[in-house]
Amino acid sequence: MTRMYHYATVSKALDQLNEKGFTCDFNLNNDAIKKNPEKFEIVHVYRYEGASDPGDEAVVYGIKSSSGKKGVYVSGFSADSDSETSKILLELSIKGR
Q1: Under a CB-based contact definition with an 8 Å cutoff, are residues 79 and 54 in contact?
Q2: Which of 19, 40, 56, 68 is the most buried (most CB within 10 A)?
Q3: Which whole-number Å values give the CA distances from 54 to 4, 9, 29, 61, 68, in the listed order?
């Protein structure tokens, strides 16, 4: 079951997830997710919506791999975000509900 948490900021969510053992940065290691999405489970999700600027929108995922590795992925809605990985994670979060 995916748990949703509400933190004031993205950095606060990342700090809390880090304290829970989510230490791998899947933004830097997103090829593993792209190649084997079935080996990953989303256990935490938080969406941040920019009140005044849609460019401030982001989704923070707490992800656990089948091998037990825990990490985070921050998906922004900016042009430089990796849309392929973001799409895979969105599909995983929907499947996990």
Answers
A1: no
A2: 40
A3: 21, 15, 26, 19, 34
* Residue 51: per-residue pLDDT: 65
H/E stretch holding 90? helix 83-95
| Token duo for residue 45 | 């999700």
- Residue-wise pLDDT for 15-41, tens only, equals 999 999 999 999 998 999 999 999 999
pTM more than 0.90: no
**Upper half-sphere CA count for residue 60 (Cβ side, 13 Å):** 24
Identity at 66, one-letter amino acid code: S
Those residues of the chain that have pLDDT short of 70 are 1-7, 50-56, 77-82, 96-97
Tokens 């989510």: give the residue.
22
